[in-house]
Structure formats: structure tokens, C-alpha cells
Amino acid sequence: MSPRLLQLNFNFSVTGAEYEAAVTGWERAQEENETAREKNTQGKEALLAIYKDHVALETVHRKLKEKIKAMARIFAAEAAQVVAQNALKIVNGTGAFDKDKAAAFLRSIAYDQLICGCENLVRDMDKVADILFRR
After folding, report:
1. What gap in Å lies between CA 103 and CA 97, rounded to an integer?
2. Taking 80 as the threshold, does the pLDDT of residue 22 lie above it?
3. DSSP string covering 76-124, please?
4. pLDDT at 4
5. What is the C-alpha separation between 56 and 123, in angstroms, rounded?
6. Fewest C-beta atoms under 10 Å: which of 1, 57, 79, 116?
7. pLDDT by residue (tens digit) across 49-67?
């Protein structure tokens, strides 16, 4: 069996009006494509602006978190100092404890750690000052 060959002949005849309509349609399609490209560019620019705003907000949020953390550490260190000082005043001031029981009580509440709870306090104070005074 031999393969069949399909042969097609196309004869086109186009009138002037049909040609003008085809060219006009093609030009309109090109204009629509250009408009779509411009809108796409505008959309990309809008997305870029939104992204830049997001990055700026993230930066502000990160600085705010750093400030709050540093302030919380400062407050916690100050509170630990007050608790330690008051505990010592109460234990020694009441006279209800002998020296061994007072020392045992202070060890049980980690008195030494309360007193030494100011580690990196100046660094945190500097960080808060830098943020507050925009240094």
C-alpha cells in the first residue's frame, strides 16, 4: 500500500476593504498588547512599592521588638534588685532567723543570682537610648 499524499491548493483573493479591516484589526491587537504591557508594568511597579513598604515596616517592627526586649531585660534586672534587697531586709530585719537559716533561705531563693542579674544591663540601656534618640 502506498502512502497517500494530500495536496491542498489555497487561492486567496482579498478585497481592499477586507485588507484594510485585517490591518486595522492587527493594529488594534498590537495597541491592546501594548496597553496590557503598560498595565503589567504598572502592576509590577505597584507590587514593588508594596514590597518596599513591607520591608520598611519589617525594619520598624524588628527595631521595635529589639527595643521592647531590651526594655524588658532592664525592667527585669531592676525588679530582681528590688526583690533581692527586700528579701535581705526581711530576713535580717525580723530577727526570726538565725544566721544559718537565713543563709540557707537566701541560697534557696538564689539571692546571689538576683544580685548579679544585671549582666549586660549597660548594653541594653545603650541600645534603648540609641533607639529612642535615633543615634
Report:
1. 9
2. no
3. HHHHHHHHHHHHHHHHHHH--S-HHHHHHHHHHTTHHHHHTTTTTHHHH
4. 52
5. 25
6. 1
7. 888 887 888 887 887 888 8
Which cell numbers in the block locate residue 90?
Answer: 526581711
- Cell numbers 513591607: residue: 54
Q: What is the pLDDT of residue 85?
A: 84
CA dist., res. 32 & res. 47, Å (int): 22
The answer to whether 81 touches 44, Cβ cutoff 8 Å, is no
Q: 134: which DSSP letter?
A: T
Tell me the pLDDT of the chain averaged across its residues: 77
Indicate whether 95 pLDDT > 50: yes
Taking the C-alpha atoms of residue 33 and residue 122, their distance in angstroms, rounded to an integer, is 62
Measured from the Cβ of residue 100, the count of other Cβ atoms closer than 10 Å reads 8
User: Grid coordinates standing for 87?
Assistant: 528579701
Q: Using CA atoms, how far apart are residues 33 and 31, in angstroms rounded to an integer?
A: 5
How far apart CA 124 and CA 35 sit, in angstroms, is 55
